Fold this sequence. Notes:
The protein has about 325 residues and is α/β, with parallel strands linked by helices. The protein has helices spanning about 15-20, 45-60, 65-75, 85-95, 105-110, 120-130, 165, 185-195, 220-230, 240-245, 260-270, 285-290, 295-300, 310-320; strands at about 10, 25-30, 40, 40-45, 80, 95-100, 135-140, 155-160, 175-180, 200, 210, 215, 230-235, 250-255, 275. The protein has 14 helices and 15 strands. A seven-stranded mixed β-sheet has the order 11-12-10-9-13-14-15, sandwiched between helices. The two termini are about 20 Å apart.
Amino acid sequence: xxxxxxxxxxxxxxxxxxxLRQEKGIEILKIEGIELIFDNGGLSLKKTxxxxxxxxxxxxxxxxIIKKRIDDFKPDVCxxxxxxxxxxxxxxxxxxxxxxxxxxxxxxxKIKVPKxxxxxxxxxxxxxxxxxxxxxxxxxxxxxxxxIQRDKEKTFVVEPILREEIMxxxxxxxxxxxxxxxxxxxxxxxxxxxxxxxFIVYGYGIEKQEENLIFKKVGxxxxxxxxxxxxxxxxxxxxxxxxxxxxxxxxxxxxxKGQFEQALNALFLKQAGLGxxxxxxxxxxxxxxxxxxxxxEKNLEKRKVNPNEALEVLDKVLANIK
Length: 322
């Protein structure tokens, strides 16, 4: 957007604020936002609601400050990445809204969902629709294009956006396997430890070696390990799976309990023949994954990826806004 000559005001919070405030050329407005709370290895809806309710009230308390920044900025269009504040602002200021995220796969695409996930799917779908139900355009990031079943004339399904650091990587395959845990999973590590491979483990915030597990803190070395790994074992986050597909790395996903979006990502991996998944991985399940690495690698090689597609579509959508 900056290269196209646009001025940008970003409303953000949490980790995103710490990252984006270092970027040159954009204005940052810090707000309070919803953060997911996990308990007993899964998402706790009760704790997420109770511990985040006050944050939204903080935005109301700071309303004058927020409104003055927006008034001074004089925006022409709003872009929302699946959060509630920008869509509210667009209504107040009567501005066009572009919704750019992967969550609207649930509401706008036809998805085959196994019976065991129907309840989670329904709850997630309702939540997404309540958060952002109306927009002038929906640009939906998705591993698979799927069939659009809603707002067809203003919905665009595109491939995931990738960081420039990922697209510039020179990859190779070593004997190492990358393990990334969004939330600590000691049971999964006990299973992995029994497999005859060297595992580079991120997510525990420590630096040590324990048998065939080498623990590292997340830092600049993570991308290098990602480029050189023979396979990935990790939670089923959208970004890391997108990067793995681009880098042609087979992926074993461990979806976080209570997050249907992660279950959806994991289901896609398995259905597309790019990897496998299990919410509670067993030794046999993980061994089977390694046994099928050649199968996954062949499917990944066949897959064509255009990481610029979303930005090309965004250009067109912005050009058509009146």
